[in-house]
Amino acid sequence: MCGIVGYIGKADAASVLINGLRRLEYRGYDSAGLAVLDDGQIVVAKAPGKVAKLNDRAHADWTPERFRRVTTGIAHTRWATHGPPTEVNAHPHLDQAGDIALVHNGIIENYRAVRARLESKGHHFYSETDTEVLAHLIGDCNKGDLFQAVCDALHQVEGTFGIAVLSAHEPDKIITARRGSPIVIGIGEGETIIASDASAILAHTQRVIYLDDNDIAVIKADSVDIRDLNNIPVTREIAELGFDAAAAEKGGFDHFMLKEIHEQPDSLGNAIRGRIDHNLGSSVLAGMGTSPRELAEISRVVLLGCGTSLHAGLVGEYAFEDLADIHAEVQQAAEFRYRNPILGNRDLVVAISQSGETADTLAAVREANQKGAFVMSLCNVVGSTIARETGRGVYLHAGPEISVASTKAFTCQVAVLLMMALKLGRGRRYSREDGIKLAREIESIPELVAKVILQNDRIAKIAADYTQNEHAFFIGRGPMYPVALEGALKLKEISYVHAEGYHAAELKHGPIALLEQGTPVIAIACDVPGKDKTLGNIEECRARGARILGIVTEGDHETAECMDDFITIPRCHPLVATIPAVVALQLFAYHVARLRGCEIDQPRNLAKSVTVE
Ligand code: F6R
Which domain holds residue 508? Predict the structure, then answer.
């Protein structure tokens, strides 16, 4: 949510910043801006819309000499919170004197009070943003030492921030700080680059430092000095990124989403490899950091997440109950800390998050930690806040997910949840023999998914018949119910078709009233327990004129014949089948959106990493 880049070094800073913003654009893309230091002055360029517009604006307004000259600057791509996405609301924002520039990710909750106080001292504000208030506050605190001014200002604000600050009077440095919004510092040769996430840093260096909450750092071309907000030095380790710039490119695909769908056999391979114990029919998940005794004592599993990650949790719920006989429940992370979650030290809380930065999930993790539960995470982004705050957990190893719509992270989340459930199950009711069989099936997931992806062209043809509808329903039962929810979410977020996922039995309790001649009903009707009942529900829909697209099991001709159109998935264990089934729905959503001419990788109003509540 909002992307920040800062650069100080020897290269053409404006181009470095714009290229960095392009990498971060998935975080927010309603406006963008940059500020550079040129000849002792701060110069700003901003534009509403995408980074490409900012690039045009900067090249139109600035001379090539300026591009060659400037080696220090900060930049931002915005996802609007306070005020619409106009040029004046775009970051960077300046202080009253125009000598200090600020980019900010997060929300300053007490900005109204601070603004009123500064206005009474004669400050004049141009934008509706909370960020401009913070810029003015830093200027107000500045008595000739930028670092101290930022510390003093941050002591006065409530809320969340990841910031980068530039001053015309201290041109050799950028100040950066975080509370609740990530900041990564890349350490290059004679250059330092900071960003909201590592994808903007990859082109420069593999060596990074992740700031912790309440860290503040002075960044120079050849040094990084990290302190806390009370000016006490802190030590943060340098980590290696472990993936290169190619991983963040489209690699010949039209969209990142299509690339990421196609990557799933590999990403799933990476998530599963080395984690299966064929001999015991179990899994090896060292990151869980649990002794067999601790595992045996777990009496309940609580799965937390938002959006797609929540849907993965719902599949996990079935898996833990089915394989391990453990009471499992999914809770919306956003709601978790506002109710009274009853938790104890025998409850295993699993926070699921691709980015590891989702504000609601992070807040839920903190609540669970505080209540003494046994907390772990399933994150994709290594070193992310949730991964670090939980301390234990399992990384997905899905590689960078750039498309705003999550695909490969979901399938890896489900695969890892299955392995966790298998591990818990083997310590309880699940026999070694059954464990060995399921472990083999889990290991074959990449192959199963590859078979679905082979149907890409056929799915594209089917999708062509569903582009005119403005409404669609997705139905499923058992573990296919969350698959229906996820299929609907994928379709609505990228194609803007109003899509709803329902338990197949639930339609007749109300939503069936909306069915008309030709309304699409996408039925997950794989050959798993409950299929016959789903077939009954399909007939109820057909009788009301619905057009049925079925996800069916290969070779199940009888079921395929009940459908107007169908996509097949290979025959496999019902829990495992959730993964190929969802891949079929990802491709369906992708092609509907493509044929409707939508901006697939950056759907309107969305952002990849939701770091505000
Ligand atoms: C949908 C999507 C979102 C995210 C949600 C949680 O395609 O990507 O629903 O799943 O915002 O994000 P993470 O997993 O990063 O916590």
Answer: 453-600
Report whether pLDDT(97) > 80. yes
Identify whether residues 263 and 198 lie together within a single domain: no
Q: Are residues 355 and 477 in the same domain?
A: no
DSSP string, 535-550: HHHHHHHHTTT-EEEE
Query: Based on the domain organization, do 584 and 486 belong to the same domain?
Result: yes
Classify residue 571 by burial, with Cβ atoms within 10 Å: 0-12, 13-18, 19+: middle
By the 8 A CB rule, do 607 and 307 touch?
no
Reported confidence tier of residue 286, pLDDT bands at 50, 70, 90: confident
pLDDT computed for residue 399 by the predictor: 87
Of the residues 173, 408, 490, 608, only one is catalytic, namely 608
- The residue-averaged pLDDT of 255-267 equals 95
- Shortest-distance atom of ligand 1 to CA 305: 16
Q: Does the annotation count 2 as an active-site position?
A: yes
CATH number at residue 12: 3.60.20.10
The pLDDT of residue 79: 83
Which atom of ligand 1 sits closest to the CA of residue 404? 8
pLDDT the model gives residue 74: 98
**How far apart are the CA of 307 and the centre of ligand 1, in A?**
5
Question: Considering 217, 242, 267, which residue would you say is the last residue of a domain?
Answer: 242
Domain's final residue, options 411, 443, 475: 443
Instruction: Give catalytic status of residue 608 as yes or no.
Output: yes
Q: Please report the beta strands in 265-358, taking only residues with DSSP state E, as ranges in sequence order.
A: 276-277, 282-283, 300-305, 327-332, 347-353
State in Å: Cα 608 to ligand 1 middle.
Answer: 7
2, 141, 306, 412: the catalytic one is 2
> How high is the pLDDT of residue 291?
86
Residue 406 Cα to ligand 1 midpoint, Å, equals 6
Residues 404 and 273 occupy one common structural domain? yes
pTM of the predicted protein model: 0.84
Does residue 247 form part of some domain?
no
Q: Closest Cα to atom 9, ligand 1: which residue?
A: 307
Q: Across the chain, which distance is largest between two alpha carbons, in Å?
A: 79
Please report, rounded to a whole number, the percentage of residues in the chain having pLDDT higher than 70: 99
Number of domains the chain is built from: 3
Nearest ligand 1 atom, CA 405: 7
Q: Best of 389, 610, 612, 613 to mutate for ligand 1, by most ligand atoms within 8 A of CB?
A: 610
Alpha helices in 25-145 (DSSP H): 51-61, 64-69, 111-120, 130-141
With a Cβ cut-off of 6 Å, ligand 1 is lined by 306-309, 353-355, 358, 361, 405-406, 489, 493, 609-610
